Amino acid sequence: LLHGIMAKPRVYITREVNDESMNLLKQTCDVSVWSGSAPVSKAELMKNLKDSQALFCTLSDKIDKEVLDVATNLKVIATMSVGYDHLDVAEIKAKGIRIGYTPDVLTDATAELTVGLLLATSRRLFEANEAAKTGGWSSWSPFWMCGPGLSQSTVGVVGFGRIGQEVAKCLKPFNLKRLTYYNRSERKEAKEIGADKVDFNELLTESDFIVVTCALTPETKNLFNQEAFKKMKKSAVFVNTSRGGVVDQPALVEALQTGEIWGAGLDVMTPEPLPLDDPLLKLKNCVILPHIGSASIQTRNKMGLMTAQNIVAVFKNEEMPAELIV
Ligand code: DGY
Prior knowledge:
The protein is α/β, with parallel strands linked by helices. The protein has helices at 2-6, 19-28, 42-49, 65-70, 89-94, 107-122, 125-133, 162-171, 190-193, 200-206, 226-231, 249-258, 297-315; strands at 10-13, 30-33, 54-57, 76-79, 98-100, 154-158, 178-182, 196-197, 209-212, 237-240, 263-266, 286-288. It has a 7-stranded parallel β-sheet with strand order 8-7-6-9-10-11-12, sandwiched between helices. It has a 5-stranded parallel β-sheet with strand order 2-1-3-4-5. InterPro entries: D-isomer_2-hydroxyacid_DH, D-isomer_2_OHA_DH_cat_dom, D-isomer_DH_CS, D-isomer_DH_CS1, D-isomer_DH_NAD-bd, NAD(P)-bd_dom_sf. Keywords: Oxidoreductase.
C-alpha cells in the first residue's frame, strides 16, 4: 500500500513530443510513450491505458466509450489540440475524468496558415509554381494564372471564436469591402474588428471568400452541404481550417467540378490523411494541405508544454492552465 501511495502516476503519451514537455512530466510522473511514426492502434492504446492515471493524446486518437471503459485509473486526459471532437466529452466527464486542451497558444499560427491558404487558393500559388517548374510558363501573359483578389471583396467567417477573430483581423488590412461573420451568438469583439454578424444564408450568398473556423459539433456537422454550395457565388473561394466533418465532401467535390464555386483551400478533410485516389486531389481548383494549421515550431512547442502542464497540475492539485469545462 505504501508503495502504491508513493508511486508516481503513470502517464501514457500517444506520440513522441518535445523535450521540454517530457522533462516536465518526468518530474512528477512515470512516462510511457508510443514511439511509432503512425498513431497508436486502439488495441495498444487500450492496453496502455489500463494502468495509466493520465493520457497525453492528439487529435488522431479517438477516445470513445470502449477505450474509456478499460481506462479505470484515468484521472486526466490532456489533448495537444484546441479541438476536442475526437473525445467523447460526455462519457469522460461522466467518469469524473478531467480534460485539458490547448486554446490560445495556437490561435496566431492557425490564423497565419488560414490567410496563407486563402491566398494560395485564390492566387493559385501551387498551380503557378508547378507551371514555372515544369515548362508551363511560356511568357508573361495578360490573363494567365489569374484569380479573384481580396481587395474590395466580401469575406465571411463562419465560427467567430478565437481563431475566426484573428483571421478577420489579419484580413482587414487587405482593403476588404465588407467583413461578416456567422456564429451561434453575437461576439462583442466583432465591433472593434469591424465585422458584421449576418445569418448563414446571407453569408453564403454574399461572400466572395468563405472562411471556416468553427468547431465540429453535432450542429456544424455537414453544415456545408450541396444546398450551401449552390447558394454560394460561382466566383466564391471556400477555405476550411477547422475540421473536415463540417463539410459534406462529395457535395464540395461536385461544386468544384461543376463550377458551382471557383475554388477551395482545405487544411482539413475526411478522412485524414486523404487517400491518394480521392477526387479532391485531382482537382486543379482545390488546394490541399495536410492539417498543418498550428504547425509553427514555437506553437507546437507551446502546445506540447501546455498539455504536459495540464497533466502535472492535476497531480499537484493546482489549477490546470486550460481545463475544458462544458
Ligand atoms: C487543433 O488544435 O485542434 C488543430 O486542429 C491542430 O492544432
